[in-house]
Design a protein that fits this description.
With 152 residues, the chain is mainly alpha-helical. It has one domain. It has 8 helices and no strands.
């Protein structure tokens, strides 16, 4: 059951892999399982967001009660897009990978969709960012020496 928690926590916007890896460590789950489930869960919503977020936001704008939410989501993505635009795919990978508030796969996917980034480049960049965030969070959560000894 603990494995399922880790998997689903990694899919929650703004929490993502930054929350699921520490939870796995707290639950004393083995690093490989925590890492794999966190990456998989964090990556699962990405293609859906990339393919459909613009259509969803457009649909939401037709309803007065949903329009402010759609506009907030767009502003949130556009506000952070300058960091990605400057460095393209590498910028997107770093944006997703550096575990800071407001970054991550959900926001990275939103930015990539709003910038009309090519789907294949966006997927690869976001996946690389998720891996980077996973390694950073694993090092912090499992302890760098324990983490490094596992990789050796």
């Amino acid at each position: 059951m603990d494995y399922i928690y880790v998997f689903f926590i990694s899919m929650i916007p703004f929490i993502e892999i930054r929350g699921s890896v520490p939870v796995g460590a707290i639950l004393d789950l083995p690093f490989p399982a925590t890492f794999a489930l966190s990456v998989l869960g964090n990556m699962l919503p990405v293609p859906v967001i990339l393919l459909f977020i613009k259509k969803i936001l457009s649909f939401m704008k037709r309803f007065p009660k949903l329009a402010p939410i759609a506009e907030w989501v767009e502003r949130h993505g556009e506000k952070r897009s300058d960091r990605v635009t400057k460095y393209a795919t590498l910028g997107l990978a770093l944006f997703v990978g550096i575990p800071l508030p407001g970054t991550g796969a959900w926001t990275g996917s939103l930015i990539a969709a709003l910038l009309d980034m090519k789907f294949s480049y966006a997927i690869i960049s976001i996946f690389a960012g998720i891996l980077l965030a996973g390694f950073i969070m694993s090092g912090i959560s499992y302890g760098f020496l324990g983490f490094l000894s596992f990789l050796a």
